[in-house]
Amino acid sequence: xxxxxxxxxxxxxxxxxxxxxxxxxxxxxxxxxxxxxxxxxxxxxxxxxxxxxxxxxxxxxxxxxxxxxxxxxxxxxxxxxxxxxxxxxxxxxxxxxxxxxxxxxxxxxxxxxxxxxxxxxxxxxxxxxxxxxxxxxxxxxxxxxxxxxxxxxxxxxxxxxxxxxxxxxxxxxxxxxxxxxxxxxxxxxxxxxxxxxxxxxxxxxxxxxxxxxxxxxxxxxxxxxxxxxxxxxxxxxxxxxxx
Length: 243
Hints:
The protein is mainly β.
């Protein structure tokens, strides 16, 4: 839902929108809007967009104002019956996860209660459920670009043909310098992984904000034995990321 300030009671509006940093003239145009607000449909989830707006005063057009930016949120979980669960983990202990797991900056603290814990001014005030969670921590001295991976045990979907399969998890990203989380699916714990989700930057506005439920369709991997990777990209001095 877009809105802007109308400095007069006359005129109509033109709108152009597109993916973040699109070049004006190459976006999607909407003309003849008769109020200073407009609702867009058909957008992709967890995607950054820009828009520009222009007024037609009847005797000429104003210059374009913008860009104004927004990011769409996630798809909500579907209300569907669950016939079986192939893999579930409440992140209370490490039961077969692999990757960059440890207590140093630039690694996944898993579980975070042993030995990890939040730095000040970042992270959630508590887990989404249970007693703990997995946390990426790189506060303090971490600089430059780094990469950290957390990979599930093998998930066997060989008997899943003919069904719709979904991945569900909760994430919390509160802090000044959040990097990028990517989720990928592969047939080996070492990859390669096909990316199915990504999020860059802060999501929650405070430690007490609720965790975000992410719900992804992975039916393209039916009939396979798969591994799911949660990878974190630390582009600069990063404080924390929880997944």
